[in-house]
Amino acid sequence: MKLIWERGKEGRRAYWPSPSESPEVSLEELLGKEYRSEPLDLPEVSELDVVRHFTNLAHENYSVDANFYPLGSCTMKYNPKLNEELANLPNFLNAHPLCMEGLVGSIEVMYRTQDLLARISGMAAVTLQPLAGAHGELTGLMLIKAYHQDHGEDRDEVIVPDSAHGTNPASAAMCGFKVVEVKSHDGLVDIEELKKVVSSKTAALMLTNPNTLGLFEKNIIEIARIVHDAGGLLYYDGANLNALLGKVRPGDMGFDVMHFNLHKTFATPHGGGGPGSGAVGVAKKIEPYLPYPVAVKGPDGYALDFNRPKSIGKVATFYGSFNVIVKAFSYMVNLGQEGLRGVSELAVLNANYLNALLRDVLSVPYSEGVMHEFVASAENLGLTALEIAKALLDFGFHAPTIYFPLIVHEALMIEPTETESPETLEEFADTIKKILTDPQKYKDAPAKTAVKRVDDVKAARHPILTKAQLDAEKFN
Fold it and tell me: Is the Cβ–Cβ distance between 194 and 215 less than 8 Å?
C-alpha cells in the first residue's frame, strides 16, 4: 500500500490511505536521527567544472571502446550500444521482481533466452539464475551432486586438468568435492592419465574446450566415453565458448552440465566486478534439479515455474542478472545463426593471424591449430612476461593475461577476439617487437601512465587501501 505525504503547518507528515491501518507518523519519526534538519554544507561548483572533473576521471579508465584489450580467456570484446539501449527500456529497467503481473514481457525474454542458449549449446534446459561464471560453476557442481545423491551414489571426486581455469578446482572444493588433477600431453588431456584417475568415486570431469591454451580437445568423444562408462558426468566450462558458436555444441560432444558466461560470449559488459551472468545448461536427466523458478511457456502464456520438487533451490535472489540477460538476448537475436557462426570464425582467424605475426619473436609452445586464443612464452627474451605486460601499458595497450596457465613458463595468454581489426592486431604485434628490440629500455615501465611502476612486493605486503594511508605515504 502506498504511503501518502502531505505538508501542513507542523511540517511534512505521512499516513496510509486508511488511518486505521497505520497511525499517523511524521517524517522525523520515520527517519529518526538520520533526518537532516539543516541543508548539507557543500561547496558550490559550476556545472562545467563538474563535467570536466568527471570527464577527466572517465579518461583515466581503460575500456574496450578506447583501446585494445587482449586479455586471454576473458573475451573482452566490444559491447554493441544497441544492447545497452534495449536493456534500458523503461519497462525492463523499472520492472520490480515482486510485481509479477508487470513482468510478463520480462519473463518472455528470460524464456526465449533460455531457449536460444539451449539450442546453441545442445542442452535440454537452462537456468539464468547464477550471477557470474564461477557462480555458474558452483551451481553446476551442486546439480551434479544432487543428481548422484538422488541416484544413491557416493561420488566425492572431481577431475580437473592441470591447464584448467583456477575457478574449476576452487568451485569443486567449495562444493565439497575432492579435486583430482589429470596431466596434459601436448597441451591436451592425457587419455592414459585420465584412465588412471577416473574411478567409482568420480562425480565429474571439468573441462574447457577449447582449453586455456586455445587448443580443441580432439579426443573429446573418447574422454566423454571414459567418464560416462565410470558413471561420472562431464562438465563444460563455457568460458571459451566464443570459439565454437554455430560450429560445435557442447551437448553433442557429450557434456551433461555447462555454464555460459553471458558477459563474455554474448557481448555484455564485464570486468571491474560485474555485473556478470553465469547461466547453466543441463542435459535432460539433470533438468529436474535446476534452481527454481524457471521461466516456462504454457497455454496461458509465460510464467515462472516454482513447482520443482527435486530442485537444489534458489542460488540467487529473484531471477538472475536480468539487465545482462536482456543484453545477451539482444545480441543473439540481432546476429542470428549465421552471425553467431561468424563470431567464432573471426575469433579463430584473428587469434591465428596475431599468432603468425608474433611467431618470429615469441615462442608458442602449443601452437598447432590454436583457436580463439594462444599462449606464448617470454622465456629468454631479456624481459619477463610481467615486464612486457607493463611496457605495453605505455603504448596504450592493456596487458594480456600473464603467468597462466602454469604449464607454460613466463606465459603471455593473448585473446584478440573477433571484434578487432587486422590493423589493430598488426599495431599490437609491431609494439611487442619494438619492446623486445631494446629490452633494457622497458625494465622500469610503465613511465607514461597515471600510476608508474609499482613495487609489487611492497604493494602486496603493505597495500594502501584508504586516503589516510595515501596521504601518510606522500608525507613520508
Answer: no
Considering the domain architecture, whether residues 319 and 450 belong to the same structural domain is answered as no
Same domain, residue pair 326 and 376: no
Residues 327 and 351 grouped into a single domain? no
Residue 91 placed within a domain = yes
Segments forming the whole domain that contains residue 259: 82-335
User: Closest Cα to residue 78, out of 390, 450, 424?
Assistant: 424
Q: Which helix (H) or strand (E) holds 212?
A: none
Answer yes or no: do 376 and 450 share one domain. yes
Cis peptide before 70 (omega within 30 of 0): no
Q: At what angle do helices 104-121 and 322-358 cross, to 10 degrees?
A: 30
pLDDT recorded at residue 9: 47
What is the pLDDT, as a whole number, of residue 1? 40
Strands 257-260 and 233-238: parallel
Residue 476: inside a domain:
no
d(CA 127, CA 291): 7
For residue 228, the domain's CATH number is 3.40.640.10
Strand, coil or helix: 433: helix
Contact 130, 257 (CB under 8 A): no
Inside any domain, residue 65? no
As a whole number of angstroms, the distance between CA 81 and CA 433 comes to: 34
The b/e string for 1-10 (b: 16+ C-beta within 10 A; e otherwise) is eeeeeeeeee
Low-confidence ranges of the chain (pLDDT < 50): 1-6, 9-16, 18-19
Counting the structural domains of the chain, the total is 3
105 and 214 share one domain: yes
- Distance in angstroms (rounded) separating the CA atoms of residues 185 and 173: 25
211 touches 161 (CB < 8 A): yes
Residue 16: exposure state from Cβ atoms within 10 A (0-12, 13-18, ≥19): middle
DSSP class per residue in 345-383: HHHHHHHHHHHHHHTTTSB-SS-TT--S-EEEE-TTSSS
What is the Cα–Cα distance from 208 to 235, expressed in whole angstroms?
8
In which element (H, E) is residue 190 found? none
Residue 387 CA to residue 449 CA, distance in Å, equals 15
306 with 342, same domain: the answer is no
Tell which phi-psi region holds residue 7, choosing left (phi > 0), alpha (psi between -120 and 50) or beta: beta
The three cell numbers of residue 30 are: 520515520
In a domain, 40, yes or no: no
